Amino acid sequence: MAAATTYSELIERVLAGDIRALARAASIVESQSKPARDLIAALFARTGHAMIVGITGPPGAGKSTLVDQLARVIRGQGRTVGIIAVDPSSPFTHGAILGDRIRMQDHHADPGVFIRSMATRGRLGGIAQATLEMSLLLDAAGRDVVMIETVGVGQDEVEVASLADVTAVVLVPGLGDDVQAIKAGIMEVADVFAINKADLPGAERLEQEIRAMQSLGAESERANSAPVRRVVATEGRGVEELLAVIEAVFAKRKRKGERAGTWAVRLRELLREDLMTGLPEHDVQAHAQRVAMKLEDPYTAVDSLRKAICG
Amino acid sequence: MSIPIRVLVAKPGLDGHDRGAKVIARALRDAGMEVIYTGLRQTPEMIVNAALQEDVQVIGLSILSGAHNAIVPRVMELLREKGMTDVIVVVGGIIPDEDAAELKQLGVAEVFQPGASLDKIITFIRDSVKQVA
Ligand SMILES: Nc1nc2c(ncn2[C@@H]2O[C@H](COP(=O)(O)OP(=O)(O)OP(=O)(O)O)[C@@H](O)[C@H]2O)c(=O)[nH]1
Ligand SMILES: [Mg+2]
Predict the structure, then answer these.
(1) Which of A133, A185, A209, B58 could pair with B7 in a Cys bridge, judged by C-beta atoms 3.0 to 4.6 Å apart?
(2) Which helix (H) or strand (E) holds A305?
(3) What is the Å distance from ligand 1's center to A78 Cα?
(4) Contacts for A178 with CB less than 8 Å, ≥ 6 apart
(5) Does any ligand 1 atom lie closer than 6 A to the CB of residue A200?
(6) Does A288 lie in the same domain as A218?
(7) CA-closest residue to ligand 1 atom 21
(8) Number of structural domains, chain A?
(9) Cα A238 to chain centroid, rounded
(10) Cβ A109–B49 below 8 Å, yes or no?
(11) Interatomic CA distance for residues A30 and A36, integer angstroms
């Protein structure tokens, strides 16, 4: 590749809408190195325009199909879209199969839809930081709506979702694990529930279950209960309504000045991942040994580790 | 940890099964690569657009339908148009020798016949990516 490409040049091209440059910048951001930070820092002044939507839910819930349909509606309104589709890397080989594009084929001739598949790459601190940085890149590149698809099975994915401006949790009837998914902490991050595959039996029951859970909350929370919408992603049914609800949540947040609140969550996450990745593995092992042998108590160990990071 | 090689595996053509492509995709994943898998019936436009957005170093085309003479030249043409000549293209499928030679002339890095060992494919991709970098 053209090794002479400087960041200012690259940034200029990204801002001018050059897709190749955007894809290259995305690779830099993914690499999680110092250049990634420099790039995002340089672009940061250009961010803040996009609505960042997290789409999460159990495997096979229809998240990609739904994202594809949301993209269609958003494009129909003349706005541009950026999509980040996150899938897990193998913890053993670090390889990954990223297959979400299979359900997002209709936009290939449309430069207004940019799709990027991203593997979790076994990052020590989790995937949230990389995903946030990728959203900021797409935001700076002028995408009006950025959607992040993650499989909502683990804590990491829930964290990714919580970094978005609005988080939609996709659930499906009849899997039996609905309630389990709700338990796994997904309930708390949901700003909107999408009950997908509403063409299958059980959608109504699932909706009732969600509402029942919501009614268990405190009075003040109940008033702010996440809206529930039924959709059939494969047919595009209910998708416009879902988008409208997502937009409404976003608009309300902006009005109430909650963006600072979102940034508080993001800063905590950045700091957490920063500390995790800054942790010298060798030192962790050494202290673990000492604690296991009762030569040191765990708090003393954590104190010295903190000193090792902060210098 | 080094950054994994990113490969797009696509199955162009109209025939309806992608078992071969999936076997390759899994083998590359197990070799530590990130495989963007786009599924069946990919047109050259879809393939090159996905490769562009995903910033892959390698495109692997699995072609069984004998459509290689129509599809591969168009893919190479689109890559040139978009300034993506540094992307390594490999083709797998039942491809007659004289056609394989022609595809290589067009810039295809290697053609793998059915039965080519997965190890050979993996090694080829690793070596080629190293050379470009
Ligand atoms: N019946 C029905 N099937 C659907 C609907 N939406 C999606 N599907 C199907 O569900 C399957 C999974 O869809 P995806 O969009 O790949 O689901 P996903 O949640 O992105 O899956 P992962 O990324 O693998 O977790 C596909 O076979 C879809 O066709 C729907 O509304 N109704
Ligand atoms: Mg998906």
Answers:
(1) B58
(2) helix A298-310
(3) 26
(4) A171, A172, A206, A209
(5) yes
(6) no
(7) A60
(8) 2
(9) 23
(10) yes
(11) 7
**Chain A partners of B52 at a C-beta cutoff of 8 Å?**
19-20, 23
Dihedral of CA B92/B94/B96/B102: which sign? negative
Q: Report residue A4's pLDDT band, with 50, 70 and 90 as the boundaries.
A: very low
Q: Which segments of chain B have a pLDDT < 70?
A: 1
A213 and A298: one domain? no
Q: Are residues A297 and A221 in the same domain?
A: no
Indicate the class that CATH gives domain B6-132.
alpha beta
Domain range summary for chain B, segments of one domain joined by +: 6-132
Contacts with B35 from chain A: Cβ below 8 Å? 95-98
The residue among B38, B45, B87 with the most chain A CBs within 10 A of its CB, best to mutate, is B38
Asked if residue A297 and residue A222 are part of one domain, the reply reads no
- Residues A61, A204: one domain? yes
The ipTM assigned to this model is 0.94
**pTM for this one?**
0.92
Structure confidence at residue A241 (pLDDT): 98
Which long-range contacts link A256-264 to residues 24+ away (Cβ below 8 Å)? A259/A165, A262/A163, A262/A165
Full domain range(s) for residue A99: 46-256
Half-sphere exposure of B63 (CA within 13 A, CB side): 28
